[in-house]
Amino acid sequence: MPAIEQLGQEYEKAKNDPEFTWKLEDLLRTYCGRPTPLYYAERLTQALGGPRIYLKREDLLHTGAHKINNAIGQALLAVRMGKQRLIAETGAGQHGVATATVAARFGLECVIYMGKVDPHPYPMMVRDFHRIIGEEARRQILAIEEKLPDLLVACVGGGSNAIGLFYPFLEDENVRMVGVEAGGRGIRPGEHAARFQGGCLGVLQGTKTFLLCDEDGQIQRTHSISAGLDYAAVGPEHSYLREIGRVEYSYATDDEALAAFQLLAKTEGILAALESTHALAYVTKHASEFSPSHVVVINLSGRGDKDVQQLAGFLQTTT
Ligand SMILES: Cc1ncc(COP(=O)(O)O)c(C=O)c1O
Questions:
Q1: Whole domain around residue 96: which residue ranges?
Q2: For residue 5, how far is its CA from the centre of ligand 1 (angstroms)?
Q3: Nearest Cα residue to 88 out of 76, 103, 77, 66
Q4: Fewer CB under 10 Å: which end of the chain, C or N?
């Protein structure tokens, strides 16, 4: 049987196996640090003068980003299947770090590549392992605000942290959702990675989705200040959600993400990943469209320590 089919079948069995789900929940809690807090950002809220803003603190997870939710789930599956070696691809490095971490935890060999092959069932597994972000956020906001949020916002690279936050709210039609892509230096060929702005439907690495290509169908160069958003294609479920009009997609430029990074650092003392500050930049731009009766949840997908050196360079050249 092809390995990919074997994986799909084994995953279906595992997710219905109480022992597997118990082990996963236990590791998420005791090793990864779940549940992550839903934090009311009071000073940020005051500074923007619009909606009440909550941050889902995925940056506080072990290894500093949401990536470990999926890495630990897939590692547990590999162990269940008797595999001894994990391989992964990484763009910004965060997924590679999370995979190497869980490989050490289970005593597995690990090789990280800078490439990507995604056929089914990977997008589904990634979504399932990350949906805990939205499930927790839903419970937490109901406990604090006694209502569902008016708006959810998350950055979109491959799309995993966004789908994780959005998925448990998809049936709640009054909850608006916005995915924020990398607008880079502006929406011109080679200067950005906003697939839904000027991208086209195509197939890349086994996935039919929106991607950035030229008139000959060649994949275009991309640019973003944040490596994790700098990718020519997007997870296929996002293309679907956009097509059916359930989720809106916008973008923030490098400069807007940089300004949002500084705003969050100054008002809340939180250094967020530059990927995550794209989501914050969207809220900053649109805050005046909301009133204090509105509740917004932003997914803070990772911490910014990895970006500090690069940021220092940018800030020096711009001041
Ligand atoms: C902190 C952080 N946020 C977001 C992303 C983007 O990935 P995704 O859209 O799959 O969440 C990355 C990717 O490396 C990341 O490191």
A1: 2-318
A2: 27
A3: 103
A4: C
What's the confidence (pLDDT) of residue 223?
Answer: 96
- Length of the chain (residues): 319
Rounded distance from Cα 225 to ligand 1 centre (Å): 13
Mean pLDDT by 10 residues, the chain (319 residues): 91 98 98 98 98 98 97 98 92 88 97 71 96 98 98 98 98 98 96 93 87 88 95 95 98 98 98 98 98 98 93 78
| pLDDT score at 316 | 79
The pair of structure tokens assigned to 212 is 């950035």
Query: Looking at ligand 1, which residue's alpha carbon is closest to its atom 13?
Result: 228
CATH number for 86 = 3.40.50.1100
Question: Ligand 1 mean position to 93 CA, how many Å?
Answer: 10
Domain count, the chain: 1
Task: Look at residue 116 in the predicted model and tell me its pLDDT.
Answer: 46
**How far is residue 244 CA from its own chain's centroid?**
21
Residues with CB under 6 A from ligand 1: 65, 91-92, 94-95, 155-162, 228-229, 273, 275-276, 301-302
Ligand 1 atom at minimal distance to the Cα of residue 90: 14
The predicted model scores a pTM of 0.96
Distance 167 CA to ligand 1 centre (A): 16
Ligand 1 atom with minimal separation from the 164 CA: 11
Nearest CA to ligand 1 atom 15: 228
Whole-number Å distance between alpha carbons of 239 and 161: 15
CB environment 184-212: b (16+ within 10 A), e (fewer): beeeeeebbbbbbeebeebebeebebbbb
Q: Give the pair of three-digit tokens for residue 142.
A: 């109901």
Under 8 Å between Cβ of 58 and 36? yes
Which positions ≥6 away from 110 have C-beta within 8 Å? 85, 86, 87, 88, 99, 100, 103, 104
